[in-house]
Structures are given as C-alpha cells and as structure tokens.
C-alpha cells in the first residue's frame, strides 16, 4: 500500500526502503514504508558507505533512497532466497517467475551510475571494486535457489540484466533497455551472438525496442531475428 504524508514524516529516512505493493499486483514500488526486516536480520548484511562517518551506503534507484544487501555474504543470500517461500511471498504459486533488474547494481547518483568502487562489503571487508562483476550474479543465484525450494524439482525461471561467468546455470539474460531503431536491432544481434559464444545459453533483447515505437517493418524484422 502507499504510505501517507503523515506516515512518511514519522518514518526515519534510514528506514525507508522499497516494498512491493501487493494490492496492485506488484506494479507499484513504494519507497517510504518502514520494513521491520531492516532492523532485524538484514541489518548486519548491507553494503557500508566508504565514508567512515556513515554506516550504510545509500543510493538512488527507482524506489528513491535505497539500501543495498551484501550479496557476497552467504547468509544474506540465504535470507534473500527465503523471502520467496510461499508463506512469505503471499499471493504467488508454482508459476512464479522473477525478473532481477537494476542488479549491477544500478545507482542513479553513483559516480559511474553504480556503487562507488570503495564501498565496503562487510563479508570479508572487501571494496566493491573487487566484487562488482559478481554482485549481479549473486543476486540471481540467490533468487534461483530460493525459488527452487518452492518446487518439486522444477527448474525456476529467473531473468537478469547483470551477469557473470556461470550465470547460465541460474538465469536467462537480456541485454537491457534499447531503442526502436535499426542500429539497435543490428547491435542486439551482435550482443546476443557474443553472449552465446561466451557460454550464456539463454539470452535475448527487447524485441521492437524498449523506448520509442517501431513501425510495422521494424517489428516484423525484429520478430524474425528473435526467432532465429
């Protein structure tokens, strides 16, 4: 549910983290809801700010000010996966498929539109520069392993934007937002081909583009290319 202005004013900024609005089928992300998980088992497993005067790294993404779990910590990944249990992820069933987006991680106000290189991961006390390429991999692996516990041996379907060596075992990959223009159709063919040569077995691009509107010919050509 959406939070009111009164609720927002009473909620400390450090406790405002994203939560899905199940009343709207998960389509609305509300950044101003106090989540008790923040104050409990999640708290020791977040990425720390490089500034010693601050504790938690805060960055901006679609929900607004956000905190970032330390997915290099096996305990954090176990906790993340547990949130997909049927008794916790209410309203879902065996036909539940997860899309892990923005998991590079994407940080809109970051120096490189991602987490600062000197942000500290408490697990092993390593800087983000040393684990950046594995962050997204750990996100979709934890998601896959959590979903796998819900089914009787059925393979979960997870879609990710960020990936690393070994990602093919846990997730399909798509190449991110593109435009409805011929140059992006051409580029997507090269990108998908390169990814498959690199061992990523299930990859794709937004057919027809994510931004702008394709004309009839581009739609047909892109659909044809995607079926090859």
Report a brief summary of the structure.
It contains six helices and ten strands; from the N terminus they run H-E-E-H-E-E-H-E-E-E-H-E-E-H-E-H. By secondary structure, it is α/β, with parallel strands linked by helices.
Question: What this model shows, in words?
Answer:
- With 228 residues, this protein is α/β, with parallel strands linked by helices.
- The chain has two domains: 49-174, Glycosidases (TIM Barrel); 179-227, no CATH class.
- It is 28% helix and 15% strand.
- It has a four-stranded parallel sheet, covered by helices on one side. The chain has a two-stranded antiparallel sheet with strand order 1-2. A two-stranded antiparallel ribbon has the order 3-4.
- Strand 1 and strand 2 (29-34) form a beta hairpin.
- Helix 3 crosses helix 4 (132-148).
- The helix-and-strand class reads alpha/beta
The helix tally amounts to 6
The largest sheet is: 4 strands, parallel
Return the CATH architecture of the largest domain. Answer: Alpha-Beta Barrel
Count of individual beta strands: 10
Which geometry do the CA atoms define? globular
Task: Supply Rg.
Answer: 19 Å
Q: Which stretches are poorly predicted, pLDDT < 50 over at least 5 residues?
A: 1-33
Sequence of secondary-structure elements: HEEHEEHEEEHEEHEH
Q: Determine the CATH topology of the largest domain.
A: TIM Barrel
Domain Glycoside hydrolase family 31 TIM barrel: 43-225
GO biological process, one term: N-glycan processing
Biased composition (Polar residues): 1-13
Protein name: Ganab protein
